[in-house]
Amino acid sequence: MMAAAAMAAACCGLEEETVTGEQKAPGACPRCSGAVVATDVESVRRVLCCLPLCVKNKRKFSCARCRRSLAALYTHA
């Protein structure tokens, strides 16, 4: 059963995320008042493990203290 799921994921496309940068962002976490960190992430969806289907650049905001995800902004590159 697991082999079939892995095969379907390989055909439909797997998404890989790599962190391209990280910096301090203005504001505070609404939950714990911790510092906010902006992380730039590039995600690549591949078909058949080698052909890139699409590339998305995202900026994810999270709390440095409680690690709560605050927001994600999609940018066009």
Note the topology.
Blueprint: H1 2-12, E1 14-28, E2 35-47, E3 51-63, E4 69-75
Antiparallel strand pairs: 1-2, 2-3, 3-4
Please give a structural write-up:
With 77 residues, the protein is mainly beta. The chain has one domain (2-75). It is built from one helix and four strands; from the N terminus they run αββββ. The protein has one helix at 2-12, and strands at residues 14-28, 35-47, 51-63, 69-75. Strands 1-2-3-4 form a four-stranded antiparallel β-sheet. β2 and β3 (51-63) form a beta hairpin. The longest helix has 11 residues, at 2-12. It is elongated and about 45 Å long. 3% of the residues are buried. The model has no long low-confidence stretch (mean pLDDT 80).
Distance between the termini: 38 Å
Structural class: mainly beta
Could you tell me the strand content as a percent range? over 45%
Described by strand count, sense and barrel closure, the largest sheet is:
4 strands, antiparallel
- What's the Cα radius of gyration? 16 Å
* Arithmetic mean of pLDDT: 80
Strand order of the biggest β-sheet: 1-2-3-4
The count of helical stretches stands at 1
What's the number of domains?
A: 1
User: Which segments are poorly predicted (pLDDT under 50) over 5 or more consecutive residues?
Assistant: none
Q: What general form does the structure show?
A: elongated
Strands, count:
4
Order of helices and strands: HEEEE
Helix content: 10-25%
